[in-house]
Amino acid sequence: MHLGDHGSAAMSEPPLRVLGDRLRTARVEVARLRHDRAAAADMSVARERLLDALDAYVRGLERLGLPIPRTMRAEQRLYRKLYD
Fold first, then answer.
1. What is the pLDDT along the chain (84 residues), one digit of tens a residue?
2. Under a CB-based contact definition with an 8 Å cutoff, are residues 49 and 83 in contact?
3. Which residue, 3, 18, 35, 50, has most beta carbons within 10 Å?
4. What's the pTM?
5. Residue 68's Cα: distance from chain center in Å?
């Protein structure tokens, strides 16, 4: 990847704060649906959004050169095994 390509990709990514908000929202939605048996069909969509949000947040941390917490990596592995 060329430096110019990396820079343009980084600029198109949302700020880490926005990615964190999306991750929190996705976690809340999955937790809410866990307790609502009538919404079982929506759970797969919510889980997919959660994994997508988690992946995007990890990419955001990597993009900024920040460490990825071990618990977040473990959560990512777990969700990938369960939902992918």
1. 333 344 445 568 899 999 999 999 999 999 989 888 777 778 889 999 999 999 999 999 999 999 999 999 999 999 899 877
2. no
3. 50
4. 0.77
5. 12
